[in-house]
Specification:
- The chain is 44% helix and 15% strand.
- By secondary structure, it is α+β, with helices and mostly antiparallel strands.
- This is Nucleoporin Nup133/Nup155-like N-terminal domain-containing protein.
- Its main location: nucleus.
- It is found in: Nucleus.
């Protein structure tokens, strides 16, 4: 029983239970040979909790109570849980042992090994193994090692320190679960005599012979056995130290550590610490042991640091910094706790094994910032009892006891506290330079946790026998072991300290040791387990430790609560404890009442088939309030499928799996679950759940799915077993068969994980647990996701393939069975919107993908293997792809329905889909080629090959269609050369918005198969129209086919202007040239523009005239470009301007040429551009007029007219030949053709024509521009006469009128 240490429980709820009575669902009573005699257990009461060798405690899990079966629990989780009994050989040895007080034992957390010393034998076994596979290693302690104990009755033969050396550290815990690579050595040191024994490998028959090392005071007989080679040296010898007798001065070893040496041989280094502070090093090999005293630890008394009475034990404990050190490191750090400080040492594992001290940190000093005296007022004496380090090697827990005197009563008492230390911020724990500095290494992590404020005064021997254990659940809890054989569990959270003392209602003997059950996920905390001297191994559930937190109010540490919260002591631990407390409190008394009522009503229905008033009673008891897995109906459903069966306890191992009772019990569960669904339907509870609690109803039905899947998996396991055993059904044959089965390994792994996480199942076989925990079927895929390589990896590739196919077939079969159940019961399910099925969860998807990716890897990277095996792998990959891709598809759909982010999942889905389909397609081609070669044998028959391909590609085609594998669909159609198949697939509208049709168009376009593309547009008109909007060089053809001539005209016009800003028209219409075919020649552009005119003429819409004018303007611009570039003398320049040029660029070329012809062409370009272009480029137009004026020597014309006395007629003739006249005539003349308005709107000819409000720059005109010309001072009248004459026309006015106007 698990009770507070200050008060024992009298177990009133168990007093009425007779030991002789058997529970209704108890298992078959074990045979008499397997039950120890009652007389072997002293003081065993006639009533009380059954002993562990009686009815197994996990039979309580068979009682179909949803309250107790939830989360796999089978009993009250606030009480200790029986884990494992001693092996039979241990029981036999204990029966022969007279003095039970001499029993010594312990637990190794890393290897999960427990050990016990009885007489001259050391028994070692794994308490985590299932009962069927539990084996015990018995090591005989050599008589030479016990010689002193035989001669001196004051010495105890059983006082041994035991350390294990794990040779399989390179292997993960999963390997050990599967029974592989288990190899360990044992180093034993007798505490009182100092004898050291080394067994190199206790699991190997050839290397389990012991090697013995005797201390120097032992006289050796000349007849020492050959296997005992004793070599002893000492360093730093002090007077009277050589040959010291440990007994003469009361010395003894109190700590022992061992670590492997990185080498192929089974060699290790041991470190022993004596009570007098001597640190010894032992080098152990399979042939000899070297022992060496490397240092002497000083006491606080020797350093004159305290006036306390002398301590009998200077050195208290020894612990590795990292308990689970990885192999391959050449050194390792360890910590040593003395009576006043913590010391850090480093030992070289290879070579000399040199041990050096790195740093020390004083605890029991006077410095308040460093020590703890500031926190302990009025103390008379301080004992540092024990120390432990967490898995990170950075947090220290120190058990402290202080002797104080009450000022009121003057009575003395002892206070027990727990001190937590950590490395200071910025310190480097791995550095070896701390010995050279005075910097503080450690700092207190919050105040002292007072465990017992006032305890009775004990002698020092009792105090120093206390041991501390950490690392169990809940986080932050600890176990304190005493020399009297008691175990006290303490938990401290937010100022509340709770103590529980482990005890059973019968004499279970002393508690020998405590440890934790490590989980396969390598989490920091595990479940507490204790090793008793008589009652085997028991576990302390997490709820049992936390139970007292809810009932106890007040705390001896209330004054420290605020400081603790302020310093956020172990914040991560607090969060995890808070989450656990929240989970426990979710299940209220109201839930218990509702569950009890539901169970009663359902039981009555099973007996009578009646449900009258069930719905009203359940609704009155608020059974419909909670949603999801916490719903009482869901919990009842889970209790049905997860109940442990009573008959399964009679079989073990291969017998268990081969027995028909497994399938029978699963079918019984299925029948009962079916009856539960009938109860829900007849009582109208199904209707209520379907409308208000859809998630709960789906959870209930998913239990049925998983049960159906488990039945299918059981049948598959039976088939595999019979197939591999060759029809031999003997247990030995089946056992050997299972050893090579990957499915068996997977079942073992999942069952072991469940057993470790649920201590109430520890006395069950892994397979039994697996087939019982139906609702946790996802754990199978979790193990595949994280531990697949341990299940599959083998040296031989064929074995890898065989095991992979076996796992793949199992996963596919169970999911297909679940989906089949779902389809058969689809009318029972609620509306699916927003509900995700269990097989679509990330754990299942990850596990399936792990298998699929492994198959892909084997297909790609495996050496040349038999093609039939390769095709078998492909077949399994096809089956996996069905269930995996469907899970992804459903998950994406659910996320979209919930409005959640789904793009990351969709991307993952598409990536993995393409990888799977690509692999399957390649394997399909290989299969077709192989079969074709077998049939044809050298002849060529393409039709036959296509026929084979068509027949073999059916399944892959279905998968690709269902999951939008466009590339695979295209490849199949391409290889079959079947346009009809392609059209049929396009007609099915695969993908959103015609996704596959778009993909086909894209492929044809990339392959430049334009005619095929356009022919598809005859049937898929709208789809092709959408696609060709990005490819306008083909869009107009499809639009003409659709009789959309106006749109075709616009697209043809855009094709003619395929360059940015090729014309002002294009800029105004915002054409996108990126979609146009590049490198069109000017003739191609002219052809497109003419086609555009034809299409516009056919349609003749309301904008027909404007479209034609625009097209004509652009045709003129194309013609002008040809003319302008043709005037260039340099051929390279003409090649450079072969593409369509912007009008502004053309005008600049004209101005740059400085020729009269191109100067006039600049005005021609301006004439065929738009009004907006002329307005925005008015400065360029000004440059054109200035350039036109420069083309004639106006000063020379004026001087010649004066000197030669030209007549008016001669002057007019000369002016008609000037560029100014011709430019004015082209821009302003009566016959001038200008697109989109005239030049007057942008630049008037004369100053009097200017309207000040019409222009941004009032007063500008051609006349004003010419006034800035250098020749205007002399020939200004002639220049103005030329432009006016060009505007009016040469024959429109007489010479006299013109001269009069001037």
């Amino acid at each position: 029983m698990f009770t507070p240490a200050t008060k024992k429980s009298h177990f009133p709820h168990r007093r009425g239970t007779s030991q002789g009575r058997e529970a209704p669902d108890s298992p078959t009573t074990p045979i008499a040979e397997s039950r120890p005699s009652v007389g072997l257990v002293a003081s065993r009461p006639a009533t009380g909790t059954p002993a562990p060798w009686g009815s197994r405690l996990s039979v309580l899990a068979r009682i179909p109570s949803p309250t107790r079966i939830y989360k796999g629990a089978g009993a009250d989780q606030t009480q200790p849980v029986f884990v494992a009994d001693f092996p039979r050989v241990v029981r036999s040895a204990q029966a022969l042992q007279k003095n039970t007080a001499e029993f010594r034992g312990g637990i190794d957390e890393g290897l999960s090994l427990s050990w016990i010393v009885c007489g001259n034998q050391l028994f070692i076994w794994s308490f985590l193994l299932a009962p069927s596979s539990k084996k015990c290693v018995v090591l005989d302690i050599p008589s030479l090692a016990l010689a002193d104990c035989e001669n001196d009755t004051n010495l105890n033969k059983g006082h041994w320190l035991i350390c294990f050396v794990d040779w399989s550290k390179a292997c993960e815990g999963t390997e050990k679960v599967l029974g592989r690579s288990l190899s360990a050595g044992v180093v034993a040191c007798h505490q009182e005599t100092g004898v050291v024994i080394y067994w190199p490998d206790i699991f190997s028959e050839s290397e389990n012979q012991p090697v013995v090392s005797l201390p120097s005071h032992v006289k050796r007989d000349g007849a020492t056995p050959l296997y005992q080679e004793v070599i002893e040296t000492e360093r730093n010898k002090e007077p009277n130290q050589i040959g010291d007798d440990f007994r003469s001065e009361g010395k003894c070893f109190n700590c022992l550590l061992a670590s492997l040496i990185p080498s192929d041989a089974h060699e290790c280094i041991g470190l022993g610490l004596s009570s007098s502070g001597e640190l010894w090093r032992f080098f152990c090999s399979s042939t000899k042991i070297y022992r060496e005293r490397v240092s002497r630890v000083s006491s606080a008394l020797q350093n004159n640091e305290t006036d306390q009475p002398p301590n009998l034990v200077y050195a208290r404990s020894l612990v590795w910094r990292f308990q689970h050190e990885t192999s391959g490191k050449s050194d390792r750090q360890f910590f040593l706790l003395t009576d006043h400080e913590i010391q850090c040492w480093n030992v070289l594992l290879a070579g000399s094994g040199y041990v050096t001290k790195l740093w020390s940190h004083e605890i029991a000093g006077t410095d308040g910032d460093v020590g703890i005296k500031k926190d302990l007022c009025r103390q008379d004496r301080i004992w540092l009892l024990d120390m432990q380090v967490d898995n990170s090697g950075s947090k220290f827990k120190v058990l402290v006891a202080t002797l104080s005197k009450d000022q009121v009563s003057s009575s003395s008492y002892i206070q027990y506290s727990l001190l937590t230390l950590q490395y200071t911020s910025g310190s480097d724990p791995s550095s070896e330079d701390y010995s050279l500095t005075n910097d503080r290494i450690l700092e207190k992590k919050g105040p002292l946790h007072v465990l017992i404020p006032k305890g009775r005064v004990e002698d020092e021997k009792f105090l120093l026998s206390m041991r501390l254990r950490i690392g169990g659940k809940p986080p932050g809890s600890a176990v304190i072991l005493s020399g009297k054989g008691t175990a006290t569990v303490t938990s401290h959270w937010r100022g509340t300290a709770q103590l529980h003392q482990f005890e059973l209602p019968w004499d279970a003997g002393k508690v020998l040791d405590a440890s934790v059950i490590t989980s396969l996920e390598n989490v920091e905390e595990g479940t507490w387990v204790v090793l008793t001297a008589k009652a085997g191994i028991w576990a302390i559930p997490e709820k049992a430790v936390l139970h007292g937190i809810f009932s106890q109010k007040g705390s001896p540490n209330k004054e420290d609560t605020e400081e603790e919260e302020r310093t956020a002591l172990d914040g991560d631990i607090g969060d995890r404890q808070r989450a656990l407390v929240s989970t426990i409190t979710q299940h209220t008394a109201q839930d218990e009442e509702a569950e009890g009522l539901l169970g009663s009503l359902f039981h009555n229905f099973l007996l009578t088939g009646k449900v009258e008033g069930a719905f009203e009673k359940l609704k009155k008891n608020r059974a419909f309030e909670k949603e999801g897995a916490m719903n009482v109906f869901a919990r009842m459903s889970r209790s049905i499928v997860d109940t442990l069966a009573k008959h399964w306890t009679t079989t073990r191992g291969a017998d268990f799996l081969s027995s028909a009772v497994v399938s029978s019990q699963l079918l019984d569960k299925q029948q009962k679950h079916k009856r539960f669904l009938q109860f829900l339907a007849l009582s109208k509870c199904h209707e209520e759940l379907s409308s208000r609690q859809r998630h709960s109803l789906q959870t209930i039905l998913e239990h049925g799915e998983k049960l159906c899947a488990m039945i299918q998996l059981r049948e598959l396991q039976s088939q595999v077993t019979k197939k591999r055993s060759g029809g031999n059904d003997s247990p030995s044959s089946l056992s050997m068969t299972e050893a090579t089965s990957s499915l068996w390994d997977l079942i073992q792994l999942v069952g072991e994980k469940a057993r470790r996480n649920t201590v109430l199942l520890m006395d069950r076989d892994n397979a039994e647990v697996f087939y019982s925990r139906v609702s946790d079927l996802e754990e199978l895929f979790y193990c595949l996701s994280h531990n697949l390589h341990y299940i599959i990896d083998r040296e031989h590739s064929m074995i890898q393939i065989q095991r992979t196919c076996e796992i793949s077939n199992a996963c596919t079969s169970l999911i297909v069975s679940a989906i089949q159940y779902r389809n058969e019961h689809r009318t029972w399910y609620p509306s699916p919107e927003g509900l995700a099925h269990w097989n679509c969860g990330p754990v299942v998807r990850s596990g399936l993908w792990n298998i699929a990716s492994l198959i892909i890897k084997l297909l790609k990277e495996a050496p040349v293997i038999d093609k039939s095996v390769k095709f078998d792998l492909s077949s399994h990959l096809e089956g996996l792809s069905d269930v995996l891709l469907e899970a992804y598809n459903a998950s994406v759909t659910v996320k979209m329905e919930r409005g959640e982010e789904y793009k990351v999942l969709l991307e993952e889905y598409c990536k993995r889909r393409d990888e799977i389909l690509c692999t399957l397609y390649q394997q399909l081609k290989d299969f077709v080629d192989t079969k074709y070669q077998e049939i044809c044998r050298g002849t060529q028959d393409p039709d036959l090959k296509r026929s084979i391909f068509k027949e073999a590609s059916g399944h892959l085609l279905t998968i690709a269609k269902q999951h939008e594998g466009y590339q695979t669909l295209w490849d199949i159609c391409f290889d079959l050369n079947s346009t009809e198949l392609l059209r049929n697939l396009m007609r099915q509208r695969i993908g959103p918005q015609g996704g596959f049709s778009y993909f086909v168009f894209k492929q044809l376009y990339r392959q430049q198969r334009y005619s095929t593309l356009l022919r598809l547009g005859e049937e898929f008109q709208e789809e092709l129209l959408i696609f060709l909007r990005q490819h306008k060089e083909l869009l107009w053809l499809h639009e003409i086919f659709l009789n959309k001539f106006s749109s075709a005209s616009e697209n043809l016009h855009a094709l003619g202007l395929s360059q940015d800003n090729a014309s002002s028209l294009m800029a105004e219409e915002s054409f996108d040239p990126d979609y146009l075919k590049p490198e069109l020649s000017l003739s191609d552009r002219r052809r497109f523009l003419n086609l555009s005119k034809i299409a516009a003429a056919i349609d003749k819409d309301v904008d027909f005239d404007a479209k034609i004018q625009r097209l004509e303007a652009d045709l003129h611009l194309l013609k002008l470009q040809e003319k302008i570039t043709g005037q260039l003398q340099d051929g390279e320049d003409r090649q450079q301007f072969s593409n369509l040029l912007h009008p502004g660029k053309l005008i600049e070329l004209c101005l740059k040429s400085q020729t009269q012809i191109l100067s006039l062409e600049a005005f021609e370009v301006f004439a065929w551009t738009s009004s907006s272009f002329r307005s925005s480029n008015r400065s360029l137009l000004v440059d054109c007029w200035m350039n036109a004026a420069d083309q004639d020597d106006w000063s020379d014309i004026y001087q010649s007219s004066v000197a030669e006395g030209w007549t008016d007629e001669a002057i007019l003739q000369i002016l008609k030949g000037t560029v100014l006249f011709q430019a004015s005539q082209r821009c302003y003349g009566p016959q001038a053709e200008v697109y989109d308005g005239g030049f007057d709107e942008v630049l008037p000819l004369l100053k009097e024509d200017v309207e000040p409000t019409s222009f941004k720059d009032p007063g500008i005109s051609v006349e004003a521009i010419l006034m800035q010309h250098k020749g205007f001072l002399d020939a200004g009248k002639l220049m103005v006469t030329a432009i006016v004459m060009g505007k009016l026309g040469a024959g429109a006015v007489s010479e006299g009128d013109l001269m009069a106007e001037l």
